[in-house]
Structure formats: structure tokens, C-alpha cells
What we know:
The protein is α/β, with parallel strands linked by helices. Helices cover 37% and strands 24% of the residues.
Amino acid sequence: MGQNLILNMNDHGYTVVATPDGVQGGRLPQRRRQGRTTVIGAHSIEEMVALLKRPRKIMLMVKAGKAVDDFIELVLPLLEPGDLIIDGGNSHFPDTIRRTKVLESKGMLYVGTGVSGGEEGARFGPSMMPGGSPQAWPL
Length: 139
């Protein structure tokens, strides 16, 4: 699903930076241009964060639960106040509430997002149900 979301975002004019997991398997090239859009393959989390325009918007597509908390711990030291983490892994709402409070206390934003529609929906029009930091909506 993550790769198809990347392609969908790219098709709609967004520049996307993907981690190595996002560009493996031959479905995403390391760099692809279509008009004004680009998909950039970063070789590490540190490179991915460095390539993002501020305020950074990071969407993770990992299994709900400990993997989300582990990713937040990994990326948190690389972020600055105002940056946003979007969890697209259908986390349970109490986890979203907890993570929102923790990240907001550090000056960052968090959105937990349920994503429905499977791989085809991700590619051509997913249903997304977000919750979390209201200050994140304009981003």
C-alpha cells in the first residue's frame, strides 16, 4: 500500500522522499520525474529527513502497534518543532491520543490515519480517516 500511496502522491504533484523499504522490489525507481514531480529514494532515515522541506511531513506505513512507537523513537531526534508524523497504519485510537500528546509536548504534530481501499485504493483513491493534532490539518 505504501508504494501505491507514493505513486498516487507523485501523480498529484507532490515530491515524495521514500526510505529504502519504499523503493525496494522494483516498483519505485530511485528517482523518477514526471513533469514537475519527483520520487526520491533516500538511503537512510537520516537522509530522508534531511531531504524533506520544512515543516517536514513524514507518513509511515507500518503495522500498528510497537512498530509505530519504534519508528517515532528513531526519527524524533532528527525532527524540529512544527514537523508532522502521519501514521497510516490504522492504529487503535487510544494509541493515537497518546502519541499526539507526547509529540505535541515536544512541539511536533501527529496524525493517526486509517487508510482503507487496499493497494488499488492507495493507488487511485484511498479512503482516509484522520485523527490527532488539529494544528496539523493545514499541512
